[in-house]
Amino acid sequence: MLPIFQHAIESFNTHLTLAQSLAEPKKYYKSINSNIDLTLQHLMTQLNLDPELLQAKPYQLSGGQLQRFNILRTLMLQPEILICDEITSNLDVLLEQQMSNVLLNYYEETQHGMVIISHDMAFITATVERIVVMRDGEIVDDFHKKYLFSAERHPYTQQLLAVYDVEWRSKK
Predict the structure, then answer these.
(1) What pLDDT, on a 0 to 100 scale, did the predictor assign at position 88?
(2) pLDDT > 80? residue 165
(3) How far are the Cα atoms of 59, 135, 149, 164, 168 from residue 155, in angstroms, in the given order?
(4) Can you state the angle between helices 63-75 and 93-110, rounded to 10 degrees?
(5) Higher pLDDT, 66 or 33
(6) How many domains is the chain built from?
(7) 93 and 171 inside one domain
(8) Which residues form a coiled coil (predicted)?
(9) Labelling 117: which of 44, 125, 132, 139 has CA 20 to 30 A away?
(10) Domain with 78 in it: what CATH number?
(11) C-beta of residue 94 within 8 angstroms of C-beta of residue 15
(12) How many CB atoms lie within 10 A of CB 102?
């Protein structure tokens, strides 16, 4: 089980290049796939990351680029369970869609589980099958995404959807 954290800048050593940072997990995860370099290249292509960026230090990248490297660093290890905590917070709408596709491809290729923590309903509905809604640390709703707008939804879920609807309408 490995996490992908929201704040990518805090998860990279600012003194190391991205290539050095991506080499670090190899030292500690001896059981990882021997094709990790091929996996890295594949993910860089999927995430639309220029290989020249590997020589940069974290502070030299945009927030979106760094978040994609943050995601890449975990996905290249192919954890059995991936925990994504607000991973789209620094991404624009196009990169968010791309991220959804990358996670869906990851699942199709590995059949490994994912837990996605997010307030972004558009990202959630595009990426997951089941939705679990929590309030104050307690599960208040659990359903397949096709039942998202069901009248049976918990009142808190309905509140979240109302906020999402207002935000969505204001972007039109």
Answers:
(1) 86
(2) no
(3) 42, 11, 12, 14, 20
(4) 0
(5) 66
(6) 2
(7) no
(8) none
(9) 44
(10) 3.40.50.300
(11) no
(12) 20
- pLDDT tens by residue, 113-161: 999 999 888 899 899 999 999 999 999 999 999 999 999 999 999 998 8
The CA-based angle 164-165-166, given to 5 degrees, is: 90
Is the CB of residue 69 less than 8 Å from the CB of residue 59? no
Are 90 and 15 part of one and the same domain? yes
What range defines the domain where residue 149 resides?
135-172
Paired tokens of 84? 């994504």
User: Could you please report the per-residue DSSP string of 116-157?
Assistant: EE-S-HHHHHHH-SEEEEEETTEEEEEEEGGGTT-TTS-HHH
Residue 36 shares a structural domain with residue 16: yes
What the block records as the tokens of 108 is 């199709």
3-state SS assignment for residue 56: coil
Q: Strand 138-144 relative to strand 130-135: parallel, antiparallel, unpaired? A: antiparallel
147 and 113 in a common domain? no
Owner of token pair 């995860």: 29
> HEC string of 14-50?
CCCCHHHHHHHHHHHCCCCCCCHHHHHHHHHHHCCCC
82 and 49 in a single domain? The answer is: yes
Which tokens sit at 135?
Answer: 């309030």
Domain identity same for 67 and 17: yes
